[in-house]
């Protein structure tokens, strides 16, 4: 397992998504309040970046900007059509002031 320091928590605004490219993977990192979530950045329905989509804080989800499919930030499962396949979920946590992500 490889651990990555993504920088200070304050560099991602509340309700914002940001893309990171790590170990050949595109990862969407989302901050909601003091919690941080990390899922695969590519929509499983169409090849579009989820980090460009709208964060749905109340639902703990993100919407694909292309066709409107939403994905749970908790388990990567699609919440709405047209997506039917989940996206990967990554372990992410705040250590001190820094966002840490583990990729296996």
Task: Provide a short characterization of the protein structure.
By secondary structure, this protein is an all-beta fold. It is built from no helices and nine strands.
Describe the structure.
With 104 residues, the protein is mainly β. The chain has a single domain, classed as Rieske Iron-sulfur Protein, CATH 2.102.10. Helix content is 0%, strand content 46%. The chain has no helices and nine strands. The strands form two sheets. It has a six-stranded antiparallel beta sheet with strand order 1-9-8-4-3-2, with no helix packed on it. Strand 3 (25-32) and strand 4 (35-40) form a beta hairpin. The model has no long low-confidence stretch (mean pLDDT 96).
Distance between the termini: 4 Å
Number of domains: 1
Instruction: Return the CATH architecture.
Output: 3-layer Sandwich
Helix content: under 10%
List keywords for this structure.
104 residues; mainly beta; Rieske Iron-sulfur Protein; 6-stranded antiparallel beta sheet; 3-stranded antiparallel beta sheet; 9 strands; globular
SSE inventory with pairings:
Layout: E1 2-8, E2 17-22, E3 25-32, E4 35-40, E5 55-56, E6 61-63, E7 70-72, E8 89-95, E9 98-103
Antiparallel strand pairs: 1-9, 2-3, 3-4, 4-8, 5-6, 6-7, 8-9
